[in-house]
Amino acid sequence: MADVSLKKVGKTYENASANTIEDLSLDIRSGEFVVLVGPSGCGKSTTLRMLAGLEELSEGEIWIANRRVDELEPRDRNIAMVFQNYALYPHMTVAQNMSFGLRLAGMDKAEIRRRVEEAAKLLDIAPLLDRRPKQLSGGQRQRVAMGRAMVRDPAVFLFDEPLSNLDAKLRGQMRAEIRRLHKRLKATTVYVTHDQVEAMTLADRVVVLNKGKIEQQGTPQELYERPATRFVAGFIGSPTMNFLPAKVVTESTRPALRIGEATIPVPAHKAETVLQRVGQDIEIGLRPEHFLVDGPADLSATIDMAELLGPTTLVHFTLAGMTCSAMLPPELAAPEGEVQSLRIAFDRMSIFDPKTGHAL
Ligand SMILES: Nc1ncnc2c1ncn2[C@@H]1O[C@H](COP(=O)(O)OP(=O)(O)OP(=O)(O)O)[C@@H](O)[C@H]1O
Ligand SMILES: [Mg+2]
């Protein structure tokens, strides 16, 4: 399976005022599952389409398995792409849809049948091979689209939001299935989504795009625990991270943070960083699970709203003028209108420069 390299890739669409993709370099290891995430319009589909050969590059190069491919036709790149809308031919059966590309390429009939049957078995759609797309559910259509990609035995799989047309339950099932398939096939995969749960659960590595540039890349855990910027911090994680304005002060010669009414010590590993900013404003980032209800409280807040999610309760309150949410054990969450004492897991908080948005 192939290594994929994007080298200083740029894309400017005709009539566009700004570059859609700028100086994008990315190396993907053979067998790796890379997920591209980012807000709508950040250039995820454009990047995939350039990889597939459906869109020309304005600058840079693309290499697959030590071969430069950006000048090659899509069919010569040994890549298969699965689209959000499946793009199945309505007048063909499932088997015909899956085998279409192979038949065009003039592959031996027996080999085509072998590949279609193997993929159908893996995807659990063998009984559907004679049906037409309109006789299938959304999830089944998605499987056929994946099967059509698999039979080509490509060096690289590209997925563009393949699950976004499915309902939440089916999305969860298909997500697990894609993970299972990847474990089995070990195919190099680039997967685009704006669903950060998909990104976190599927990826070996997540690449966060913002306005056509890589904002940060790393394992899901790295991005979640150590976001490099406020943008990544706010984008990864659901419910989203809480951002609070704070001022660095000193309290008996040790740095502390003033957040609203509360003054709290700075965790040791951040002390040096913030010591240079005494008297300055910073921004801290706390995830909903960084508020705890055991041990001595750091602050208290009146609960504006409590949402019972089942295993946890999400409470909303106002702190330093900002709306915050905390994920608490249901039996310890205060009801609406009552005061909740909260301890903050300061060792896990993020600190950002409010001007640049960079983590400190
Ligand atoms: N053919 C085109 N001509 C001109 N501009 C385009 C073209 N295709 C995309 N764009 C612009 O390029 C930018 C990136 O588009 P792209 O489709 O790559 O975004 P995306 O990250 O996939 O977004 P989404 O999450 O909404 O699918 C957008 O501003 C879009 O309007
Ligand atoms: Mg897109």
Task: List strands and helices in order, with pairings.
Elements: E1 4-11, E2 21-28, E3 33-37, H1 44-52, E4 59-64, E5 67-68, E6 79-82, H2 94-104, H3 109-122, H4 138-150, E7 156-160, H5 168-185, E8 188-192, H6 196-202, E9 205-210, E10 213-218, H7 220-225, H8 230-235, E11 242-251, E12 254-259, E13 262-265, H9 268-275, E14 281-286, E15 291-292, E16 299-308, E17 313-319, E18 322-328, E19 339-344, E20 350-352
Parallel strand pairs: 3-8, 3-9, 6-7, 7-8
Antiparallel strand pairs: 1-2, 1-4, 4-5, 9-10, 11-12, 11-14, 12-13, 14-20, 15-19, 16-17, 16-19, 17-18
Helix pairs in contact: 2-3, 2-4
Task: State the share of residues found in helices, binned by percent.
Answer: 25-40%
Count of DSSP strands: 20
- The number of helices is 9
Strand pairing plus helix content: what structural class?
alpha+beta
GO biological process, one term: carbohydrate transport
Keywords: ATP-binding, Cell inner membrane, Cell membrane, Membrane, Nucleotide-binding, Sugar transport, Transport
Domain ABC transporter: 4-236
Main location: membrane
Write a brief structural summary.
Keywords: ATP-binding, Cell inner membrane, Cell membrane, Membrane, Nucleotide-binding, Sugar transport, Transport. This protein is an alpha+beta fold and 360 residues long.
What do these coordinates show?
The protein is α+β, with helices and mostly antiparallel strands. The chain folds into two domains: 232 residues, P-loop containing nucleotide triphosphate hydrolases (Rossmann fold, 3-Layer(aba) Sandwich); 111 residues, OB fold (Dihydrolipoamide Acetyltransferase, E2P), CATH 2.40.50. The chain is built from nine helices and 20 strands. Strands 6-7-8-3-9-10 form a six-stranded mixed sheet, with helices on both faces. Strand 9 and strand 10 form a beta hairpin. The radius of gyration is 25 Å and the shape is elongated. The mean pLDDT is 92. Magnesium ion (MG) binds next to helix 1. The site of magnesium ion (MG) has 2 residues, from helix 1. This is Multiple sugar transport system ATP-binding protein. GO terms for molecular function: ABC-type transporter activity; ATP binding; ATP hydrolysis activity.
